[in-house]
Amino acid sequence: MIVTTEKLFEAAYGKYAIGAYNINNLEQTMGLFRGCIDSKAPFIIQISKGARSYTHKNMLEALIRAADEIFPEAVFAVHLDHGDEATCMDCIQSGFYSSVMIDASHEDFDKNIEITRRVVEAAHARGIVVEAELGQLGGVEEHVQVSEADAHLTDPETAKEFVERSGCDSLAVAIGTSHGAYKFSGSQALRFDILSEIQKKLPGFPLVMHGSSSVPQEEVERINAAGGQLKGAKGVDATQFRRAAELGVTKINIDTDGRLVWTRVHREFFKEHPENFDLRPPGKEFMAAYAKFIAEKNDYLGSAGELDAVWKLIKG
Ligand code: G3H
Ligand code: 13P
Ligand code: ZN
Fold this sequence. Notes:
With 316 residues, this protein is an alpha/beta fold. It has one domain: TIM Barrel (Alpha-Beta Barrel), CATH 3.20.20. It is built from 13 helices and eleven strands. It has helices at residues 5-12, 26-38, 49-54, 57-70, 85-94, 109-124, 156-166, 192-201, 217-225, 241-246, 256-272, 280-301, 307-315, and strands at residues 18-22, 43-48, 76-83, 99-102, 129-134, 138-141, 144-146, 170-173, 178-179, 207-209, 249-254. Helix 5 packs parallel to helix 6, helix 6 runs parallel beside helix 7 and helix 9 (217-225) runs parallel beside helix 11. The two termini are 15 Å apart. Bound molecules: glyceraldehyde-3-phosphate, 1,3-dihydroxyacetonephosphate and zinc ion (ZN). Zn(2+) 2 binds at residues 103, 133.
């Protein structure tokens, strides 16, 4: 069942975080639903601009509608990840998305508010919720590389004003993570001090953590052993998700780790079966591995086992 993030965040606030997973194709869709049902977790499906144009914007909608029928017990939001204003408006008008992210974080403070406000007005008129971003993460986003020098952390002093003036429903904050497989040049450090300050200014307000893949070293080593060349890849310690959740983070975005699972499965498969040219055997292996990966992530997030409680909340 497709829901907005409102009820999901209400259920999760202060206790656990909902996993927000990017999808691009059929195999990720099936693995994601399977993993969330196996671990009894509510979840958020994220679709980026790049994912919308990978085949056709209607293709992922059809896949998700089919998955919703195949897994009727699933509860999830359909969310546009890192939208610009035009893409947000298109998703709002589509009648399919239950949540959009307007990412005007590269604009100055007032312009970010102005753009976010326009998207909020259009979205709320159709019962859709809006995530906005204040501060800027480093790393790769929609093929744009944001250097560490250009990245900046969210200023807790302005967060409240931003939320009040923009009317957004949740806020993505920059607290030291970055997008992609190469996070943290030194030792990893999430800025819980800043997160805690933001929560004090915005008690009860849902916060979002982007760039939260863990880049498991075992995964990286297996990829490299099967011919990959990922050097110095590093991610967020997943054992810190619960602490972030206690400080108001209700949504944690994970994309890169899923890509690593895909890469590992396919590299190992073709190394072990050089004679193979059928796409289905590695596809099947990937769906099973992705489902397992999602269920494990939901354990770290604390969303595993929460599906029944969310159903109760929805049904009132
Ligand atoms: O933050 C970006 C997400 O990982 C989506 O990546 O724009 O390459 O689909 P993408
Ligand atoms: P990762 O690159 O850490 O998976 O972050 C994904 C993300 O923030 C999507 O919006
Ligand atoms: Zn992101």
